[in-house]
Structures are given as C-alpha cells and as structure tokens.
Amino acid sequence: MSPKLKRSALLLALALQGCSLAPTYEPPVLDLPQHYREQTSDGPWHSAQPGDQLSPQWWRLYHDERLNDLQQRLLSANPNLAAALAHYDAAQAYASQFHAGLFPQITASGQPLRQRQSDNRPLRGTTQPSMYNSNTAGFALNYDLDLWGKIRNQVAAGDAQAQASADDLAVARLSLQQQLASLYVQLDGLDAQSRILSSTLDDYSQALQLTRARFQGQIASELDLTRAQNQLATAEAQLDDVRAQRNLTEHAIGELVGEPASSFALAPSTQTLNVPAQPAALPSTLLQRRPDIAAAERRVFAANAQIGVAKAAWYPDFSLTGLLGGQTQGSGNLLSAGNRFWALGPLVSLPIFDGGRLDAQERQAKAEFEEASAHYRSQVLHAVREVEDNLAQLRDLRQESLDEQAAANAAQHTQTLATNSYEAGAVSYLDVVTAQTAALQAQRQVQALRTRQLQASVGLLTALGGGWEGQQ
Fold this sequence. Notes:
Layout: H1 3-17, H2 65-77, H3 79-99, E1 105-116, E2 131-144, H4 150-216, H5 222-256, H6 291-312, E3 317-328, E4 340-349, H7 357-423, H8 429-463
Antiparallel strand pairs: 1-2, 2-3, 3-4
Helix pairs in contact: 2-4, 3-4, 4-5, 4-6, 4-8, 5-8, 6-7, 7-8
C-alpha cells in the first residue's frame, strides 16, 4: 500500500470513529397546559431534565425538631434505602463495564505442560518422542475500532441507565421520606384527638356527677343518669380507639427508621404542626426536579442509544489483534529470539445470514424506545395530576376547615346554653347530651381536617420533587 493510500485509510478510520448510527435524541413531546388549573404559574412547561436540585431537607418547612431527627434516622438506618443504594452501586459498576470496551483489551497467559501424543497420530514423525514438555507464555491484544459507534452507544446507554438508577435511588428516598412525614402528621393528629377526648372526658365526668347528684336528690330521672353514663363510656371507647390507632402509627414509624416496634416509642406531642405557607405561584419547572420523571427521561435516552447499537450490528466489525510470546520444549529462555512468536493484523467480521436475528433486534430496540417514551409521558401526566390533586385538596380543605370551625364554635355555644338551661331545669338532659355530642364531633372534625391539610401539604411538597425552594 502506498504512503498516500495509508494516510487516506487512517483519516477515514478516524472520521468513522466519530460516527454514530443512533437517531438524534429528542425528549418526547408533551401537549401540556401552560399553568396549573388550581394555581397560576409564572411560565410554560419545560421538558424534564435529570433531577439534580432536590431540596434535601424539605420537611424542615414544618419546623419540628422531632420530625427532623426522625428523617435523619431514616436516612441512616432504613433497610429499604440501603437496598436501593446497593442497587445504584451495582448499576454504576455495570455502566463501567461498557467503558472498558473503549480501550484495548490485553491479556497474559502461561501454559507449562507435560503431555503425551498418540502413537497413531496422523503424520507423526518416527523421531518424535511420545512424551514431551511444552511451555508457552504470551500476551494477546484486541482493540475494537468501533467505526459505527456500537461501543460508544453502549457506553451512552449504560451511563444513562446509571443516571436513571441514581434517580431511582432519589425516588426511593423521597418516597420513604414522604411515608415518614405522612405518618408523623397522622401521629400528630391522633395526639390532638387524644387531647380533645381527654378534655371532653373531664367535662363528661363532671356532668355525670352532677346528674347523679340530681338523681339522688330526685330532681333528675334515671333516664338522665343512664344517658350521662352512656355518653361517658362512648367517649372513653373513642379515646381507646385513638390510642390503638396511635400504637399502629408509632410502630410503622419505628420500622421506617430501622428500629423494632417493640423498643420504639414516641412521647405524645403537646402542640400541633402548622401547614407550610406555599408561594403564590408554583412554576411548572419544579416538576423537572422529580426524580421519577428524570429517571424516565434517562431511560428514553438509553433506549435511543440502543437503536444505534442494533443498527451498528449490520455493518462490518473491525478490530486489531496481536500476539506476542514464547514457547519452548521445557528448557531454554522463552524470550530468546528462536523461541519467540508474534502476530499482528486486522480482523473483520460481517454478518451474511443470521435468519432475521439482526432485523428482530433492531425492531426490538425501536419498540423499547417507544415503550420508554410512553412511560415518560405517563410519568409526567401522573406528576401533573398529583400536583393538581394536592393543590385542590389544600384549597378545598382550607375552606372546609373555616366552615367546620364556625360549626364547632356554634356547637360549643349550644353546649354551654344547654348545660346552663339544664341546671336551671329548663330543658331535659337529652338536650345536653345532644349538644355535647355535636360539640365533640365538631371539634374532632376540625382536627381531622387539619390533619388532612397537613397530609396534602406533604403530598404537594413531594409531588414537586421536594418542595418549592432550592437547595437548603
């Protein structure tokens, strides 16, 4: 080959090194609204990118030190999170295996043998010994030129899958944090219910004592006495039910933070949490921080790169191979000139007939890209729905709480009027029981709505990928 031809071949090979048969990547197009229906936004929707701006401690918006401590314990001791971290490490190691294909592969081998050949071996010479030594040592080199981008697309797909695995780890972390925050909010609400019922039991006990005294003084009937007893026992049963629910919630929190339920305990809280004030507008770009959307987008990219891998399989595969070593009959220097062997040259392989295997692999890669794209669109739509759901819940529950508080105030006033009228002998004890039951129910409903508001705020914070603030 002339020097000019050699240079041309080298330039062509270098040019082909930058060749890739993967389609130009474009994230799936989504027809989404310009803003949330439940709240105005400051800009249009944007394609999701890998989530790298998650607020690491979004729960601090609740300003509760015990919740902060529990979240830190979850991060350090939850076994499911540890499993997700190990899965991420495995994905990183798997991606690194593809990077190795970009470099020459060199192996060393040694083979000291004592062997016997058959007496009836074809073409065996009469002077050849039956038994002899054969010592061989050498190096082998193989380097795939990757002219069509097969290896580079495998690397790109592996890296994208590793990035998706990192987002999966963030999904697992965020999901566990949401579970813990929701359970803590539920525990806080149950403690508030316990305080309401405990205070009510004191009032009911005093009412029972008053009714018993009036009955003994033949002022009240036995019917009034049994009604008071029934009312007190019913409230005690409600308190027992709240305590039972609290035990189950406490056990679930213990499991999340990696402690056995038998030894885990949280003292009842003495004050309730506050719903964080959300900004007047939530930009749609906050959804870019959701790790599940970012993971879905990275898998679309990986599937796109796999199409390039499948297409490259149709083209000739060029590689360089080399051998260098020495061989003796059991004695002598392996590296001496007479014992050395070597080989160097290109290797070309081209599929001729495979029964449709390569065509099927390409169709499979394209179908997997369509599947990943559909999953990405589904994930974004699901995320939008979660944001809208929680925004609507916060808005509707806020108004419902105001209405219920007005009802509770009226029920409390009715209870006071009924109690005073009964002591004056103007009404029957049935009116007192009815007023007290309505007042208790209204108070508990106000607290239940507050708990639901807090849970909706937790849902909104996590639906946005970790709050509406930047890195803390």
